[in-house]
Amino acid sequence: MLLAYNSFGFPPGRIAENNKLDFLVGPFDEFTARWYLQIGTPLIMTIAFQILTPHLGLCLHAMYMFFSRCFDRRCSLNRAVTKCVIQEDYEDLYTGPEFLLQVRYAQLLCTVFVTVSFSSGLPILYAIAAVSLFGMYWTDKVLLLRYHKITPGYTKWTSMQVVRIMPLAAVAHILFGFFMYSYPFVLSSDLNTGWFGSENSKYFNPKRLG
């Protein structure tokens, strides 16, 4: 999203052309008020949808399996009562899918990185991410106990990789925060001349970096 809509370092004339053949030349060269309206709002909505969308399919399928098993047992609590004729059909009905740990970690990293990256200008992302992670925890806990089948033991390597990657979110937060807070028309200040004396260097001047 950032690479598609932002064009750091290109002059206003090149941006105004809006040539579809241009690569990495979007309509925004700063995090302006228009950026927050056109990009920030859909970004917030996307993260908000992440509260439900990763779990919706699993929850619906879990409900379907629950009613299918109830129908198979004729609403009896005795699992020995079944309409299944062969063992394979019985196992397919009463065994849930495998829990995909790597997919859940990918969703977790996506939520954390997007939230921390853009939270300097969109602080509501913190609240949305908190609700999302809370829902992710409890949904996985319930589904692991009541829906998913018993999976082989996971090794520590996937978790260790996630732990190693997570601090990079702080680097993204600092970088994005610098561009958002130092934009002169968001927090009122005078325009500063770039170190290199050209419009392309407006991001690198003593006052803005300070």
Descriptive account of the structure:
- By secondary structure, this protein is an all-alpha fold.
- The protein has one domain (31-182).
- 59% of the residues lie in helices and 0% in strands.
- The chain has helices at residues 2-5, 12-17, 33-49, 53-72, 87-94, 101-118, 124-146, 157-165, 168-181, 206-209.
- Helix 6 packs antiparallel against helix 7 and helix 6 packs parallel to helix 9 (168-181).
- The model has no long low-confidence stretch (mean pLDDT 83).
Low-confidence runs (pLDDT<50, min 5 residues)? Answer: none
Biggest sheet overview: none
**In total, how many domains does the architecture comprise?**
1
For the record, give the distance between the C-alpha atoms at the N and C termini, rounded to a whole number.
28 Å
Mean pLDDT: 83
Computed Rg = 25 Å
| Beta fraction | under 5%
DSSP summary, beta strand count: 0
Helical segment tally?
Answer: 10
**Shape descriptor:** elongated
- The level of helicity is 55-70%
Order of helices and strands: HHHHHHHHHH
| Class by SSE composition | mainly alpha
State the gist of this model:
This protein has 210 residues and is mainly alpha-helical. It contains 10 helices and no strands. α6 packs antiparallel against α7 and α6 (101-118) packs parallel to α9.
Keywords:
210 residues, mainly alpha, 0% strand
